[in-house]
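fold-stage: in
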Amino acid sequence: MRQFIVEKNQIKNGLIILEGKDYKYFRQVLRVRSGDMVSVRLPDGELKNATVALVDEAARRVTLQTCADTGLKSEKTITRGVQANEIAGGADGATGINGLQTVEYWLFQFIPKLQKFELIVRQATECGVSVIVPVVGEFSEKGSVQGLSGAKRERLDRIIKEARQQSGSPVDTRINEPVTLEKAVELWQENCSGENKVSFVLSERDDCSGNLRSEVQKAGGLEKIKKAAIAVGSEGGISPNEVKFLEEKGLFVPIHFAVNILRCETAALYGIAAVQSEIMQ
């Protein structure tokens, strides 16, 4: 774990109280002891170091207390790998090593089977995608669409939290409710009105004329692009009519990667990485 995501209801009188599954994770997985230090991401997005103030075995409760910001990056915590504040960039607003602080990434994922969708959500979160929009497409199974609610929705929220904690992502990834293709386009247009943006749809057909590099360069690259979107199909891909609709109504540029045929969960990860890498050039 590179950071722990703190929920609002876990903060009481200035302390962070962990119970239930979080207590079990801290004690059985992290094996924390009083005095250990961990990195915590507060509800307002701020990353802080916190000290394990008390481990109450009887009450099955771990109490954390946030530390004053000393400005020292050398403070040792029990978390591993690159800390989230280093990934996100400096406090002066400079762009981080992956450009996530200046560009908001959206994934319009045509709904596949639920197990695959869970993997896509986990990987997109680790990559720093801000918004995941499940799209009801021509090839989406009704059962999968209906399953994205209730207990399944809670499970997806847990997957996002776990992925952020493991990866150290500073991005507060969120999943929207499933929408039609028409609504997805409206949502994208409403949320990026007046902003410099790029949007792409992955096409299995090699007759599309879109070019990822030229579109990113035309939009001004990392210095000017504020939002970027990618639309990815389900197991059956995206129908020609859906690609045409995205192109004409949403100004999504169809692009084709000259690689092996990819599963939808691989295509989503590959596409996100390709767009991010090109923007960072």
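fold-stage: in (second)
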Amino acid sequence: MVVTSATAVTVLAERVAGLPAGVRVAAVGEPTARAARAVGWVVDLVPTETSAAGLVHALPDTAGTVLFPRSEIAASTLVDGLRARGIDVDDVVAYRTVGTGDEPITLDTVPDAVLVTSGSVAREIARRMTPLDPRTLVACIGPGTAVEARAAGLPVHVVGPTRSAEALLDAVVEALNPTAPEQEGHP
């Protein structure tokens, strides 16, 4: 089984008491792997490149079927890549990502930063929050999300060095306070 989001892990774990014996788990990155371990799964593979393409390349050949529980709007990168390698994929929509409305979002104060954690978030920000104030920093969780944010028409000022919330927040803090000295125990 391959999982590419903590949400996929949560949704699946809510529906099955545990994984059948012999099921091996590959997670797209450490945050997803942490979510899997938190529900009691053993994670067998986390690729060095934390992306669907990285997972396609890192997954060993298998004669069995790979289960891919995913969001309805997930890109086809993983499925297409595994199938191109001759790996049978059971591609299952496990959850749907929905917007929170259609009205423009207006804020009383200009935000210092907007955090973009996925392509769908980028599209919602572009649809409901633009034009953004030029002083607002747009920060993306990883390079793939930055590409999607730019495609949605957003400027990208910061990209997290690794695809994790921690790395994104560290990058935002650094961008907003570039001369702030590090304190022991506090980056």
